[in-house]
Amino acid sequence: MTHWRINAPPEKVWDAIYHSERWPGWWRGALSVVEVKPGDERGVGSVRRFIWKSWLPYRLAFEAETLRVEPPTLLEGWVKEGDLEGKGVWRLGREGKTTLVRYDWNVRTTQAWMNFLAPLARPLFQWNHDVIMRWGEEGLKRLLETQEPL
Questions:
Q1: 25: number of CA atoms within 13 Å, CB side?
Q2: How confident is the model at residue 150 (pLDDT cuts 50, 70, 90)?
């Protein structure tokens, strides 16, 4: 579970998160996001291929299908093919002028080498995920936050 506090309206945060094809422009580590299959008018059913890279010497590639879209508060997807399988859920809320972002990422690895190393390397894999999520928070803040006039 990851929590971000972004000083921007929920609608702007939603727009940035919902349009994952734009992530490589502001989210370090997001190497590529390509739509494989379009969804309905809200994006439900769309499938996108993601490629990620962090400090560890490997890349992760997977496809995710959008399951639920409830703007500007909920976005849910199923990682169904590639190096990971599982579910990701973005939840957005508001606290004053701040958007609270919660991301639940419940996945398992599918690669034999990762599954073999997982009992010992789990803390390293978690650290790697945390690094990528921190880069996302930093990038989103750079993209959306503005300073109040003095």
A1: 8
A2: very low
